[in-house]
């Protein structure tokens, strides 16, 4: 019943969307669909003949494997048990040597969720220790982080609603096939910033760096000029400030990491998501643009903050120049520039935006009551919400709805209006994470 209502609201929202005049240069879910259909096709790429392979499109994340003298060195293990079993079969198609070493590029679950499949050969599992300590008692927030992660990644959405997870197909645990994650803890945890190891005839340079996580490894094969980047590069705007929350991701350090990646003069870059970069000139061009775009947003944000602008003002004025925004590998299909700006602001300045009005604001309910009275009461605001939805002014509609819901949180009609507005916004969203959050929250409103 609730799903049928959501579908009805989606149809209504689509009708409103289609009935309005077309807007030039509008980007919406169609661009996300196009990106999702081309950015990570199912393929195994032989990077170095009979030696280095990149596996993409078989899971939300990528994996790579290197054939050593007597064994296989595996870089990440895909996101779930059944998908790792497919990876195991792929490896067997290229060699009968056993997997004796696994290296995690970082600790995100989608990169190590299939590790248990490879335990029959008792591999050494190598990972990096975090370069920054985790905030104390972070586990006390597990429930809210889990909830927000479910929304961000669209775990409870249908395939049609979710489309993808932005930088890869949906995780195996969302496919309703009983898939599961089989994590295995590392047996070797590197605490040095740089370690050079010979593993079964292959020289590895392992460097601990900061980026999307605080426990990332850059994995460099100097003999073959192959760099495994983990999630420090993938082919769209990165998730620099995830909407699910979490510790501040040090963007200045991430920029430093991209500079380090450029310093290798790699011929191949194999990312943890999306397509590999092939060719030294292409690698240099892409990584340079990626670095420069992020550095521009970072510097412009700091400059705007220093001018005394509020967080909303900074988010409004800092935009990615067209020369970078038009590049296919900097599209906002996962993270967004606006969320990056907001993350930088709060990371450096905290919650206070310099406006003394915000030092002791009215309680939300009291503020809503006073606002509602000035606007002519509940009926007038509901009419305004309905009018905003007809005009496809969905952001205004949900902001008006929030005024009523701050006073009357279970107002059924207003919750449905807000859900309809969220669906309209989802249809206009290029970020998979943003799309998922809109749809997931709409479902929650209708389920209450």
Automatic annotation (TrEMBL):
GO terms for molecular function: linear primary-alkylsulfatase activity; protein dimerization activity. PANTHER family: ALKYL/ARYL-SULFATASE, ALKYL_ARYL-SULFATASE BDS1. Coiled coil: none annotated. Pfam families: Alkyl_sulf_dimr, Lactamase_B. SUPFAM superfamilies: Metallo-hydrolase/oxidoreductase. Keywords: Signal. InterPro entries: Alkyl/aryl-sulf_dimr_sf, Alkyl_sulf_dimr, Bact_Alkyl/Aryl-Sulfatase, Bds1/SdsA1_MBL-fold, Metallo-B-lactamas, RibonucZ/Hydroxyglut_hydro. One of its GO terms (biological process) is dodecyl sulfate metabolic process. Residues 1-18 form the signal peptide. This is Alkyl sulfatase. CDD domains: arylsulfatase_Sdsa1-like_MBL-fold (cd07710). Residues 60-273 form the Metallo-beta-lactamase domain.
């Amino acid at each position: 019943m609730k799903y049928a209502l959501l579908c009805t609201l989606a149809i209504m929202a689509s009708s409103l969307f289609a009935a309005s005049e077309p807007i030039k240069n509008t980007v919406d879910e169609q661009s996300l669909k196009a990106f999702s259909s081309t950015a990570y096709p199912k393929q195994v790429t032989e990077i170095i003949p009979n030696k280095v392979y990149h596996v993409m499109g078989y899971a939300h994340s990528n994996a790579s494997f290197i054939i050593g003298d007597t064994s296989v060195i595996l870089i990440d293990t895909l996101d779930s048990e059944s998908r790792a079993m497919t990876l195991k079969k792929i490896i067997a198609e290229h060699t009968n040597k056993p997997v004796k070493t696994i290296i995690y590029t970082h600790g995100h679950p989608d990169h190590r969720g299939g590790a248990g499949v490879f335990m029959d050969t008792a591999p050494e599992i190598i990972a990096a220790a975090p370069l920054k300590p985790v905030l104390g008692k972070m586990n006390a927030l597990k429930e809210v982080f889990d909830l927000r992660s479910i929304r961000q990644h669209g775990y409870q959405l249908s395939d049609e609603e979710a489309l993808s997870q932005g930088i890869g197909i949906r995780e195996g645990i969302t496919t309703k096939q009983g898939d599961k994650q089989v994590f295995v803890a590392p047996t070797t945890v590197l605490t040095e910033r740089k370690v050079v190891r010979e593993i079964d005839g292959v020289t590895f340079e392992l460097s601990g760096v900061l980026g999307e996580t605080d426990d990332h490894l850059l994995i460099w094969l100097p003999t073959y000029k192959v760099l495994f980047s983990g999630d420090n590069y993938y082919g769209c705007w990165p998730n620099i400030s995830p909407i699910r929350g979490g510790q501040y991701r040090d963007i200045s350090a991430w920029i430093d990491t991209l500079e380090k990646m450029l310093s290798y003069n790699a011929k191949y870059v194999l990312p943890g998501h999306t397509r590999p970069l092939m060719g030294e000139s292409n690698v240099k061009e892409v990584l340079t643009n990626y670095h420069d775009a992020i550095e521009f947003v970072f510097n412009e944000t700091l400059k705007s903050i220093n001018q005394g602008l509020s967080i909303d003002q900074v988010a409004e004025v800092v935009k990615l120049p067209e020369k970078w925004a038009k590049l296919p590998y900097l599209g906002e299909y996962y993270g967004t520039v606006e969320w990056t700006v907001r993350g930088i602001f709060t990371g450096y300045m905290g919650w206070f935006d310099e406006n003394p009005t915000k030092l002791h604001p009215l309680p939300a309910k009291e503020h809503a009551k006073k606002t509602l009275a000035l606007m002519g009461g509940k009926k007038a605001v509901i009419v305004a919400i309905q009018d905003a939805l007809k005009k496809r002014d969905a952001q205004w509609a949900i902001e008006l709805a929030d005024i009523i819901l701050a006073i009357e949180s279970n107002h059924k009609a207003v919750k449905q209006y807000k859900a309809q507005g969220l669906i309209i916004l989802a249809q206009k969203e290029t970020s998979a994470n943003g799309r998922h959050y809109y749809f997931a929250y709409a479902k929650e409103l209708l389920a209450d």
